[in-house]
Structure formats: structure tokens, C-alpha cells
């Protein structure tokens, strides 16, 4: 049998070792949960996710190039449908400079010049 004093000494040693491990673990947890480390982890995770999605998209385009071209063309036509409809109807002059109004001549286009110091 072991001596009670030896048993207490061994228990203290185990307690000190456990306390040391606990403090080391707490230090690691505090370091991991620092705001700068959390932000860096979030940025790295987002960058990895974006890179993974880009790789998957590129492989999908390589696998089906004609389908992707047709899909992109359909989206382009859908976005430009109003402009295309104007061209088909003959209203394609939307960007042309409008003709001057009939009732104005060059003399009446300007407002009279203000004279300094005089009121009307």
C-alpha cells in the first residue's frame, strides 16, 4: 500500500499537470477567438469558397460550351428586348439629336444679359 502522504503528493502533481494543460488550452482558445484571427479565418474561408465555385463554373463551361453560349445569348436578348423592339418598329433613332423647335429663332433663344448694379 502507498503512504497517504505519497498519495496526496501524487494527487497534487496530477492536479498541477491538469491545471497546466487547462491553462494551455485556454490560451489556445483565446488566441483562436481573437477578432483579428476570426476575421482572417472568415476571409480565407470566403476566398476558398469563391475559388472552388470558380473552378466548378469553369469546368462546367468547358464541358458544355454550346449550352453556355446559348444561355448567355438568351440572357443578352432578354436584357436588350426593349432596344431590339424599338429597332424592329423603326424607332431606332433614339440617340439622334432632336430637330430644333419651329417657333424659336437664334435671337430669342438667349435671355437678356443682366446689368450690374441696375434693377428693372
Question: Can you characterise this structure?
Answer:
The chain crosses the membrane at residues 66-84. Residues 109-120 have a biased composition (Basic residues). Residues 89-120 are annotated as: Disordered. This is DUF3618 domain-containing protein. Keywords: Membrane, Transmembrane, Transmembrane helix. There is one protein chain. This protein is mostly helical and 120 residues long. The chain has 4 helices and no strands. It has helices at residues 4-32, 35-63, 65-79, 81-89. The mean pLDDT is 83.
What is the secondary structure topology, with strand pairs?
Blueprint lengths: L3 H29 L2 H29 L1 H15 L1 H9 L31
Keywords: Membrane, Transmembrane, Transmembrane helix
Protein name: DUF3618 domain-containing protein
Organism: Sphingomonas canadensis
Amino acid at each position: 500500500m502507498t503512504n497517504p502522504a505519497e498519495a496526496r503528493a501524487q494527487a497534487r502533481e496530477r492536479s498541477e499537470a491538469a491545471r497546466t494543460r487547462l491553462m494551455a488550452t485556454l490560451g489556445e482558445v483565446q488566441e483562436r477567438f481573437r477578432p483579428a484571427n476570426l476575421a482572417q479565418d472568415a476571409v480565407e474561408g470566403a476566398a476558398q469558397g469563391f475559388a472552388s465555385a470558380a473552378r466548378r463554373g469553369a469546368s462546367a463551361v468547358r464541358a458544355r460550351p454550346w449550352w453556355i453560349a446559348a444561355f448567355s445569348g438568351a440572357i443578352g436578348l432578354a436584357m436588350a428586348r426593349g432596344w431590339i423592339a424599338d429597332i424592329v418598329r423603326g424607332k431606332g433613332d433614339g440617340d439622334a439629336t432632336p430637330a430644333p423647335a419651329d417657333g424659336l429663332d437664334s435671337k430669342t433663344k438667349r435671355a437678356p444679359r443682366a446689368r450690374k448694379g441696375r434693377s428693372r
